[in-house]
Specification:
single chain, alpha+beta, 3 helices, about 40% helix, globular
Length: about 80
Amino acid sequence: MIDSEKLCAIVTPDSAPSKRLVQEARNNNMLINATQGRKIRAILILENGMAVVSALNPETISSRCMGKNRILTSEEENNIG
């Protein structure tokens, strides 16, 4: 899991700069591979310069981050506690 507040950007791995970023992060031991052997579909760039490669689509990751940070309604809060 990654703290969504530490996330700077979510990019696709298709462009040459994205591929370079992954290679540089790998060379500098700043890469976390979270693909579990699957195809890279998203690159997450963190505040501290780390890069995380993921098999999830950028849209999926973005929606999960947005859902986590949204404000709960009073009814939802009552269901939690």
